[in-house]
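Minutes, project check-in
Item: structure for the 227-residue chain
Input as provided by the requester:
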Amino acid sequence: PLRLVIAGLAMLILYTFTSGGITLNGTPLAGTGSLLTGGNSLLSAVLWFLGLGLISRDISGGSIQGGLLRPLSRATYVLSKWASLCGIGLVLLLFIHLSFLLHQGLSAPDAASLPLIFAAQALQIAAVSAVITLFSTVPINFGELGLLALGALLLGMLKGMNYRWNSAALDQALGVAWRILLPSVGDGTTRLLTSLPINAGICVAALAGAIALLQRREFSYAEQAAG
């Protein structure tokens, strides 16, 4: 229930982004930029919040054993978990795009870029959901939050190295990576197009890793009962 309440509040914020209800320096956010401003980082944060424990909860609670008693492969189990989270993200994405069209309409420039923006954000959701699924298959004594903290620490260390060694190339590389993973319409269609294969590759790699990790986990009760 707490997750649903917080997710509802996040959706209300997303709605205000896309409906022109948020101002920046006294000017309401308008155009497709409002879709990307709220629909990238905030929507990804909602997915992270809803997806924590996606598989690890089943493992720690023992319900995964019952799931594996069915004629269900571990790969299918992982893909079904990913698809459920991905489906939630796509519903939320469709909601903010519809609210955008309802409140801000569709100008000629937006009409050309909106399908590409939707596709880029949909693949972003698929990639984020796949990474969450991967994190949720690691041993429970480390877990998703530990990996997330490790990732944040790694990024901080890279940033610190950049300041220490004055590596402008590293700073630019991190900036480009961030803006590709969270596409920005301000760069035209180039970044949006580039994000499509990159996020697709991340999605495939993360799902393959999640399946491989779960294949190596042992659930003796389920395996004995299935046999």
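Outcome recorded: The chain has a mean pLDDT of 76.
No further action items on this chain.
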